[in-house]
User: Fold this.
Amino acid sequence: MIAKKNLFSSEIKEKVQSLISEMTLEEKVGQMSQFDWGFHAINPDAGGEINLIMKELLDKGMLGSLFNLSGVEQANTLQQQAIERSRLGIPMIVGRDVIHGYRSVFPIPLAQSASWNPDLIRRTASAASKEAASDGISWVFAPMIDITRDPRWGRIAETMGEDPHLGEIMAEAWVDGAEVLDSANESLSVASCPKHFAGYGFAESGRDYNTVDVSDRVLREVILPPFRKAVDAGALSIMASFNEVNGVPACANHYLLTTILREEWGFEGVLVSDYNALGELITHGVAKDAEEACEIAIKAGTDMDMHSGIYYKYLPKLVQEGRVDESLIDAAVGRILALKIKLKLFDNAQVNPDLNQSVILSEEHVSLAREAARESIVLLKNDNDTLPLTKQLKSLAVIGPLATNINDPLGCWAADGNPDDVVSLLDGIKAKISPDTELLYAEGCDIESEDENGFEQALAVVAQADVTIIAVGESKIMSGEGNSRSELDLPGKQRELVEAAIKLGKPVVVVLFNGRPLTTVWLDEKATSIVEAWHLGIQSGNAIADVLFGDYNPSGKLTATFPRSVGQIPLYYYRKNTGRPPGGVYSSRYVDAPVQPLYPFGYGLSYTKFEYNNLVISSTSISSSDSVSVSVDITNTGSYNGDEVVQLYIRDLAASVTQPLKKLKGFSKISLLAGETKTVTFTVTPSDLAIIGVNNSLTVEPGSFQVMVGSNSEDGLIGEFVVR
Ligand code: NOJ
Assistant:
């Protein structure tokens, strides 16, 4: 259990009160304002209103926060100025989007979640925060803990998939890793900022920023659990989302920000809006002008205004006119000051400028990047045990637009990443194979264009080699913010290249680089071996080569369902039976397609085989306050040592409210030597069995429960017990 990091100790409370008692209203609202320095850097003389407000606040020493500074020198200089110019010596807090690594770029979060390894996530988050802190950053806008069921949505790459339980575990680990509160004197402490609160992953049609319409039940059962866990893990801030919830955009949504977050959960930290989200209240159509936007945002519970300038411009007037009570401002600024005190920014806001040389891209972080990348890889298909390949091949062809690519493996949201740090697949392979292997390379085509001129050369090298590795997929800007897709197959001419190569009849291994689930049914039908390698960060090529040549036995499991077609979306394992489950004519089905996914949630192969036996439930009948243990024997029946993610799912067979066919309630990643058997035991507690019943309260309802333990969400041993 992670200790909750209390923001308001009595000492902090006292200091906050004493500061507030001396602050003018203007100083207070300055603290509640945050700006994007990168925006200013691109256009310093634009003189637009935002730049003017930011400059005014900087000059007056009243600015609460900046983000997107470039490097430690700039952070130190601006911070020094802020403190010197501030009448009360109040430092700024410097933020940044540190989504999956800083300069040491780790795999995209969707990939990292496929490791099902919270300890790994804790370590990558912590390494990222330490690198960022050495560059003057003390607030990372991470983790992204949105649940989503829509791979069209480009920001699925930044999520940890579709499941609330896995989301909870990962959110807790990420917050714990990212918040570095005991930094050495020469660096900074770091606060995390779980986002986007809430429902952002449910944008209609998978179109980023689109309308969200979710029931309170889906909100509370699926979307909110990771946020609740992040709060309980001590998250010091939270970012509100752009979208509306029940008709009210998040930063204006009192129910979300005050009723749930503050009153129900007791969140004490800072609530920051998303970028210009206050300004967008006008575009959404819930405020007639900026002044009204200002009023509803502060009344809803938004503490800090990211990059709209609206708080600074209008809050004083609203207070003077009696439309906003100054106590709301004191509460918000109090939380911002408390955060700064907690991070020790009043004691030391300067960073030793030489520190980053030893922290950034340290040997430890680079090796962690390789470890994380290997654990993120998911083996989707491996007929005839084509993989792993021997390092002693006579000849090997490597083709495809991602083979030598060092830019796209960085993935979306890797602003501090540098392509020169990335090991390409071809270089990873070169470093792995015998010097006697003849290595042939041709690109074949690029990611998106319709040009087939490179096919001839590529197919010639395929024909010449014993084995071919084809690296295909998406560019990094096909996922991430604003980058939704309506088709989820390989773009450009890549499919044609892969099909032509397979047609030559020689062994072909396809390596996919993508930021989301794809609908590559044709590939599954035609290829013998498919390796899902996502966008894996700086150690991409080495990690993939480790897997291809058997130095690492893949263990990743999908955390988002791969649909067969865009028409099936949203498709997710946590679905309900309905009154007419898929079957005959008048059932919930398609006339032109199966309802099953291409690859289900939790799926992923290994070079070895795992057999599940002896499901034992400790009791067939328990009371509603009892726990029950469920154990299963897993045997590695293959010839490689390997890791397996053992998954436990629960189904409440009849409840006052319809329940999903399966809900993940436990998992355990175990290592098994070839031939070894281990028993895994899960404890199913009353809170695992509790549901939000028809009367809206959390209860364990009596009745039968089904348990499934297996290697993915569709395959496992099933048992049953009864709650009396
Ligand atoms: C908008 C994004 O939605 C959010 O995730 C990010 O933290 C902010 N911009 C700041 O860059």
